[in-house]
Backbone:
């Protein structure tokens, strides 16, 4: 199989899993259960999770993946963003869907899905990323909702989820252009008109990543832990749920390495004025005339 067939396989798994998401996301269900069911489905269908399944509810916009032992139960009147990635042989399909039981949530969901559709139609080799952002912004404006201006889509490379250029959700950018044969995730986020249209960091972190693999052959505890993480996750984001087998001493060392910055941690991102946020996301491969939607 060439790389495109492999990526299309990852995309097919992502589509199959996404189709099952709405029935899993129900009031009374724990976020932990939802995340683990989705990750298990990815494995059953022939992929591996490229990053921990994100379940970001209401004004939480991104980067919340239930940590081990999370007891959070989904309540009524929710706007949930389910964002997951499927990897096959290092090729990643990144997708997200909003599930909601509120009228405001439905409006936001329709708006981001339409914005994504319009953005996908705009994509072609040589198109400026700012033009894609402008299209997203326009569609969201027509719905009377507000784009989240500091969340973007991104290029994807093999074993590299956030590579190269960013794809804004507003008309901005440095003049970068989409390139034929490159892979991009496009992901409009929106909140209500009264919102700030901006996310801010919280103190909570649930997702981690090893950016620089260990170089020394040293066999001290720290080097051993870093090598375990490097081997297991290949530089991709992970959850502490995926390190459950480590002993308490090693997990304490992990938290120390997070504190010193040796391990990168992703802060949970929340809408600045605490307003609900919706998201839609597809992964595309750019062609000369347009693009192929992988997911
Ligand atoms: Mn995603
Ligand atoms: Mn993404």
Residues:
């Amino acid at each position: 199989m060439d790389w495109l067939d492999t990526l299309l396989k990852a995309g097919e798994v992502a589509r199959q899993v996404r189709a099952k998401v709405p029935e899993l996301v129900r009031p009374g269900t724990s976020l932990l259960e939802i995340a683990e069911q989705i990750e298990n489905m990815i494995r059953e269908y022939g992929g591996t999770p490229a990053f921990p399944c994100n379940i970001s509810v209401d004004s939480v916009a991104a980067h919340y993946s239930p940590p081990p032992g999370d007891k959070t139960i989904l309540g009524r009147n929710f706007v949930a963003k389910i964002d997951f990635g499927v990897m096959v042989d290092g090729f990643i399909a990144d997708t997200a869907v909003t599930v909601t039981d509120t009228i405001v949530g439905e409006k936001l969901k329709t708006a981001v899905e339409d914005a994504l559709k319009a953005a996908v139609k705009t994509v072609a080799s040589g198109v400026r990323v700012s033009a894609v952002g402008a299209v997203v912004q326009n569609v969201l404006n027509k719905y009377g909702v507000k784009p989240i201006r500091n969340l973007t889509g991104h290029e994807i490379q093999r074993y590299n989820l956030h590579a190269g250029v960013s794809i804004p959700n507003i008309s901005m950018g440095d003049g970068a252009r989409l390139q034929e044969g490159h892979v991009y995730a496009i992901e409009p986020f929106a909140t209500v008109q009264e919102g700030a249209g901006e996310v801010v960091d919280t103190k909570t972190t649930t997702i981690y990543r090893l950016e620089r693999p260990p170089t020394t052959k040293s066999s001290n505890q720290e080097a051993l832990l870093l090598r375990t993480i490097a081997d297991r996750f290949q530089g991709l984001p992970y959850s502490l749920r995926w390190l459950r087998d480590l002993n308490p001493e090693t997990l304490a060392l992990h938290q120390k390495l997070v504190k010193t910055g040796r391990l990168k941690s992703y802060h949970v991102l929340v809408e600045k004025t605490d307003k609900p946020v919706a998201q839609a996301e597809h992964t595309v491969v750019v062609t000369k005339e347009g693009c192929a939607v992988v997911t």
Observations:
- The longest strand covers residues 199-209.
